[in-house]
Design goal:
The chain has 367 residues and is an alpha/beta fold. The protein is built from 19 helices and twelve strands.
Length: 367
């Protein structure tokens, strides 16, 4: 039996990501997880006895062979955490999904990715802004990541399809498109990008699925732009995940008092980068990223960036880090009085050069 058949079976049971990752850490392979005795689970899994009993009852009824053959005929891909095709950026977050189900070109996620998210009840102006920024960034070779929701997400996907590739991360099984009116859009994305989910096929959308999937949107991306968001918008959850994962956070400001501006203005007050034009996003990218985007000879942005005291700031950051214990990014923000987005870019650059290492919980140590 193929290894991925066991990954499918374990996903079908519905382990939460952290529990699934713990089981892989303990039992090493999905086959070992599936074949381990009840006594081994009790001793080693760390799960409650009731959960273990539920799993063994599920296992007794589950037809591994027929389920795998049915899945192979579905036209849906499965990428496990240790697979080469699994997106590298996602492997680096604290709780990566052990399995991704996808349709389309998963390789577009190993390019530079940038997330654009926002309100489902977006204004025409907000949707226009999201579409234009997405189209420009996608035209530079950046994969635009969003959640296929109504409003800003939809506009971001539509804009990026005009000039490049986009990725839609679902809060349901890949065969359960939500909202239904975006079914046609999802088919277009499959042809010019990828649609993916950590939930197995057949999983219906559920309110708690969407906050869970937001960590994937931010985890795939070098930064997250929020375009219109209320005080309790799911887009703010994505921004919070981005901060925890060391990604840049960007927001488009709105009119004071507007319900659709409360979330974005709050992000800017908290240190998110204010965005008025595409340059406000690109200038926060590490120099290595700008080089990859081939902007060196065609855009004055790089020259402007080189004039900034980037190296001086990087040296200051290094001096504040310790080789013995991690320093939290929030502490660095307070001491250096830098926006989170700018500090994240500096740390990402230092990490790529091998000067620092990022630890779980958004702590950094000097190497």
């Amino acid at each position: 039996m193929e290894e991925k058949a066991y990954f499918l079976a374990l996903s079908d049971f519905g382990f939460l990501p952290r529990a699934f990752l713990k089981l892989l850490q303990v039992f090493k392979t999905p086959q070992n997880i599936w074949n381990a005795s009840f006594e081994s689970w009790i001793r080693q899994s760390g799960l409650r006895a009731e959960k273990i009993k539920d799993f063994f009852a599920f296992k007794e009824k589950y037809d591994l062979q027929s389920s795998w053959m049915k899945f192979k005929r579905s036209g849906i891909g499965l990428a496990a955490l240790q697979d080469l095709e699994y997106p590298q950026a996602l492997k680096e977050i604290p709780d990566p999904p052990p399995v991704l189900f996808y349709q389309g070109n998963l390789k577009c996620l190993n390019k530079i990715c940038f997330a654009i998210v926002g309100s489902r009840q977006a204004s025409p102006c907000g949707k226009l802004q999201a579409a234009k920024l997405s189209e420009t960034l996608a035209g530079l070779g950046i994969t635009i990541v969003s959640g296929l929701a109504r409003g800003i997400d939809q506009a971001a996907h539509e804009g990026s399809l005009k000039s490049g590739e986009t990725a839609a991360v679902l809060g349901s099984g890949i065969d359960q498109i939500y909202p239904p009116e975006n079914q046609n859009l999802s088919e277009r994305i499959k042809r010019q990008g990828v649609v993916l989910s950590e939930f197995p096929p057949g999983t219906l959308p559920s309110p708690w699925h969407f906050p869970q999937r937001n960590r994937i949107i931010s985890g795939l991306s070098i930064g997250v732009l929020v375009v219109e968001a209320g005080e309790k918008s799911g887009a703010l959850i994505t921004a919070q995940f981005a901060l925890e994962q060391g990604r840049g956070v960007f927001a488009i400001p709105g009119a004071p008092g507007s319900d659709l501006s409360k979330g974005t203005n709050q992000l800017i007050q908290s240190g998110g980068k204010l965005v008025q034009e595409i340059r406000d996003i690109l200038e926060e990218f590490p120099l290595q990223v700008i080089s990859v985007l081939n902007l060196k000879s065609s855009d004055s942005l790089l020259k402007e960036r080189e004039k900034m005291p980037q190296e001086k700031m990087a040296k200051t950051v290094l001096q504040m880090l310790s080789a013995k214990e991690g320093v939290c990014i929030e502490d660095l923000v307070c001491q250096l009085e830098l926006p989170v987005s700018k500090l994240s870019a500096i740390l990402a650059s230092l990490e790529m050069k091998g000067f620092v290492s990022r630890l779980p919980g958004n702590f950094y140590v000097k190497l």
